[in-house]
Amino acid sequence: MARRRVYSGWSAGIAPAVPSAAPGEFDLVAQMKVLRFLGYFVLVVIVAAASFAGYIAISGIATYTPEKVNLRVEVTPAKVERGRKYASMLCISCHLDPSTGTLTGKRLADVPASFGVAYSKNASACNDLQSL
Ligand code: HEC
């Protein structure tokens, strides 16, 4: 009768060596290593996110007092022409009122009714710019 081989290392605190899988075989040990690594990674991400949320909860959301912008724009014919070009490319589709021919704003007819009635603003007269 064959003798049963009994692993005797447990008492010494040594786990039995797990045979690694042959190439192409399902390698449970490698799979477990990957899963363990992913588990630690997710844990680190969760701890980092919770720490950040806790920091924001304790310190509060930062507030800043806006500074007055002192902007002086030198008006030259070249700049006005460039502005006209950009406005005609980017702005007139919404701001040009066909009845006045200026950027005084209009009703945006293609806004779906479920969003209500929308008007573009009068972009032709900015008090701040006129005071420059
Ligand atoms: C897709 C449509 C659309 C385009 C394109 C568009 N606007 Fe407007 N604009 C609006 C609407 C709508 C409002 C009004 C928003 C509101 O009442 O809250 C507005 C508001 C403004 C205002 C007033 C902002 C304020 O706080 O009172 C200015 C200035 C303006 N637009 C300038 C421009 C300029 C300059 C361009 C091109 C670079 C441009 N818009 C392109 C739709 C547009």
In words, what does this structure look like?
The longest helix is centred in the first third of the chain and has 32 residues, at 28-59. It is elongated and about 105 Å long. With 132 residues, it is mainly α. The chain is 41% helix and 0% strand. The protein has 4 helices and no strands. Among the domains are: 27-62; 77-123, no CATH class. Residues 90-91, 93-95, 118, 120-121, 123 line the site of heme C.
What's a quick, concise take on this entry?
The chain is mostly helical. The chain contains four helices and no strands.
Strand and helix layout:
Blueprint (H helix, E strand, L loop, with lengths): L27 H32 L17 H14 L1 H4 L31 H4 L2
The chain binds heme C.
Descriptive key words:
single chain; 132 residues; mainly alpha; elongated; disordered C terminus; binds heme C
Q: End-to-end span in angstroms?
A: 107 Å
N-to-C series of helices and strands: HHHH
Helical stretch count? 4
Percentage of residues in strands:
under 5%
Mean pLDDT: 85
Helix-strand category: mainly alpha
